[in-house]
Amino acid sequence: MPVPFETLIPYVIITAMFGVTGAGLSGIRHYAGGGKKHRWSLDTWDRQMMDRDRRLTGVLRGQTDKAIAPPGFEVNQPWRGEKRFS
User: Fold this and answer.
1) Nearest CA to 33 among 72, 61, 6?
2) Do 49 and 78 form a contact (C-beta atoms < 8 A)?
3) pTM
């Protein structure tokens, strides 16, 4: 006995929505990461280097090969003030 096509419509819609959601999430991650793959298991050193690269290039995942830092980098320091107890 064949399955009526009316019962397959919701399954097709659900499958299409999962596909659209997955493709959208992948596209957003690709765009937010500067076109590079997602980084896994970041430690303190990796985060520190990403912050330095962001301060050098203005982009979180950007890197530069220039030997001389751009003007203004010497006053752009990563040190944060300590949090006070209230």
Assistant:
1) 61
2) no
3) 0.55
